[in-house]
Amino acid sequence: MAEEKLEQVTQEKDKYENLYKFSRKLEIKTLQEKYPNPNVSLEVPGYLEGEMDENTILRVKNLHISFKTPNGLVRAVRNVNFDLKKGETLCIVGESGSGKSVTSRAIMGILAGNAIIDEGHIYYKDKDLAKCKEKDFYELRGSSIGMIFQDPLSSLNPIMKIGKQLTEALILKTGLNREQAKVRAIELMHEVGIPEPEKRFKQYPFQFSGGMRQRIVIAIALAMEPEILICDEPTTALDVTIQAQILDLIKKLKKEKDLTIIFITHDLGVVANMADRIAVMYAGKIVEYGTSEEVFYNPQHPYTWALLESMPSLSTSNRLSAIPGTPPNMIYPPKGDAFAQRNRYALKIDFEQEPPFFKVTDTHYAATWLLHENAPKVENPLKNRYQSQRKETNVEVTE
Amino acid sequence: MAELENVKATNPAEAEPILELKNVRQYFQHGFGKNKVVVKAVHNVSFDVKKGEVFGLVGESGCGKTTTGRSVIKLYNITDGDIVFKGVTISRGTRTFKQNIASLRKQIAAIKAESKEALDDLKGELKLQEEGGDTTANNTSNRMSEIKADEESKVAALKEEIAANRAKIREARSINKRNAELMDKMQMIFQDPIDSLDPRFTVKDIIAEGMIINGVRDKAYIEQKVNEALELVGLLPDHASRYPHEFSGGQRQRIGIARALVVNPELIIADEPISALDVSIQAQIINLLNDIRKDMGLSILFIAHNLSVVKFFCDRIGVMYYGRLVEIATAEELFAHPLHPYTKSLLSAVPLPDPDYEKNRKRIFYRPSLREYTEDKPIMTEIRPGHFIYASKSELARYERELNGEEVEKDPTLIYSGE
């Protein structure tokens, strides 16, 4: 067992050693010119066909993002495409390092300093956010696109009173004076369900519990009434009961304020609760894209299967089927399908050629060779899961 | 005073327990005088972990489940109660004895005050009688000496009791001293695989540290054990010379597990070992823990807030709410027949990967303030074999009817969403 593993590791090492040594010596910029991103392709999946219509509020097209690091270029996002329809909740699911946060940060224009947008467009209204300057983002951030971060403790300033953090943007951008801004801030705190907002207005973040802090963060994000709200794992740091409260709050606010939400998470339970549409990401790519029902009840990509299988439902009793191995090193993105090495159902072609998007229905697309007409038929391992689960939870569903 | 309100949660028919907690309390205090604040993190908790069993502790953050785990492994000295590990008491709290001493001292003061009052009265009488040349003066002085003797004997008895309590405190302190041999058999796996590994130690140093502290000096033996432990958790022997930052989150958690396993423990306290990991890695770690547990016959105290994982992994589950255990049952029983309102509300908050279920899900909220416990005090009671619940008598009657499948009136502490 150990010998096998050792062999595998040494093989991998040899494969990358030459490249690795080479990339260290070169300037990163010349490296990029000399070895252009091997995975850049202008191929756009079928679901992005056609012009942006009135319903499409945001379109991410052919987006490629890399990070300069001392070890080489990390290809964090490789050809991401999606549409955001007005009033919907799009959930982006994936492991850490799959590029979901990077995509959302690119939309907000808050990528780290060593990031390069290699290619691609982010269309919002008449602007292309991928080419926007910092000055242009100044008008968009907060007032058009708001963002909630994962850790409510570190996204608030610990030495600034809650009231000041809430009114900061209001005073700066809308020209309200301090008293008016305070009235508005207390209104906001009331909306997000904070009891005694007048008293809480004068307190510091450490005097709030985790759930209350996250409510404050939501209030700050909504202060300027944005159209799009990006939630980057807003409940990962919270426990189940508080998580349920925050999710309910986000759903309520969405209805009241007519928000469009991009929700990033790795918890599939949360996704089932929130999503209208789901994009599953792996190794910097969207591998499956469809409505919530389609992705949960008729998943097509082996990675989606594996993700769903590795979560014990309340009815799982035998051994969990874990995904073996770890995500690939994105300095050397693998050839072919990035998931092939961890995939039980991998075909030979998966190791050689990248799968294009296959259409399942008009709204459901998956990038896997298994959907090709010549591929062997593989039965969906999750077929019977929902029936047994429903028995367990006593939920009746009419199909 | 040790309130024996928590009945020991055991089923005598089953295997012998490896760990027992008896009325354990863990209070933290800060400040002095009127600023003194006492936080009752763990409040009278009793349960036990059987040999080869996985016992799950669930509850929201701040309910004291992590504190319970840390108290068991003696990272804190417990305030009150007993912790018994492999039949030996390893921790004993002194709060009961201190309270006893305080109340005894109060009794002494009361007795002294009483007799002083009586003596003062008699003194006045005696003075008058002596001035008046009364012949009963002798009688009065006799009565005075009687009262004095009575007081002395009572106080002496109470003082003896105080001494006995003091001796018990001394005994508790000697119990609380580290019992190295026994504590080796108990190891902990921490939540955050990044913070719990020393960044300047190699993997070998990290894993071998426990053995070196225990006095193992044979380098070849240490290396062999380290390699064995690494292999056991699915890492390679040549990983031993690397540093923690070279590993991914899942691999780091494996190192943490190897560190716990290298000294051949019998009980492992796993404090949310998977909540900091990715979904796909969580399953790997759960499977690993499951395999190790079966191979080595380990008992695990598993602390978590992800209920679907807890149901999958644990044999029995204890639900904690604000420092108290409110329900103990086998995993199947707890999910099939949750009785305590808090358990119900917790189960209703679990998100499942099923959109239709999520859309139809009704949240239940627990509002303990809607109930009064002033007259009908709640106690931990065994409602079915192996199913314990913290309830008052009237509630117990209702739960029993609920278990029998009868229609029952709505729980007053529950609020259903949409109401």
Explain the overall architecture.
The complex is a heterodimer of chains A (399) and B (419). Chain A has 399 residues and is of the alpha/beta class. Chain A has 3 domains: 2-32; 36-144 and 228-364, Rossmann fold, CATH 3.40.50; 152-225, no CATH class. Helix content of chain A is 35%, strand content 19%. Chain A is built from 13 helices and 12 strands. Chain A has helices at residues 2-25, 28-34, 100-108, 134-140, 162-174, 178-191, 197-200, 210-222, 240-257, 268-274, 292-297, 302-310, 385-393, and strands at 56-69, 72-85, 89-93, 115-124, 127-128, 145-148, 228-232, 260-265, 277-282, 285-291, 358-359, 365-366. With 419 residues, chain B is an alpha/beta fold. Chain B is built from 13 helices and 14 strands. Chain B has helices at 65-72, 95-132, 137-176, 180-183, 203-213, 219-232, 249-261, 279-296, 307-313, 331-336, 341-348, 355-360, 393-403; strands at residues 17-30, 37-50, 54-58, 80-85, 88-92, 186-189, 267-271, 299-303, 316-321, 324-330, 364-366, 379-384, 387-391, 414-416. The radius of gyration of chain B is 29 Å and the shape is flat.
- Order of SSEs of chain A: HHEEEHEEHEHHHHEHEHEEHHEEH
- Averaged pLDDT of chain B: 86
The CATH architecture of the largest domain in chain B:
3-Layer(aba) Sandwich
Share of residues in helices of chain B: 40-55%
Number of helices of chain B: 13
What gap, in angstroms, lies between the N and C termini of chain B? 43 Å
Which sequence of SSEs, written as H and E, runs from N to C of chain B? EEEHEEHHHEHHHEHEHEEHHHEEEHE
Tell me the helix content of chain A: 25-40%
Task: Return the CATH architecture of the largest domain in chain A.
Answer: 3-Layer(aba) Sandwich
Tally of separate domains of chain B: 3
| Strand order in the largest sheet of chain B | 6-7-8-3-9-10-13-12
Unreliable segments of 5+ consecutive residues of chain A: 20-32, 37-42, 395-399
Number of strands of chain B: 14
Total domain units of chain A = 3
Largest sheet properties of chain B: 8 strands, mixed
Quote the CATH topology of the largest domain in chain A: Rossmann fold
| Widest beta sheet: strand line-up of chain A | 6-7-8-3-9-10-12-11
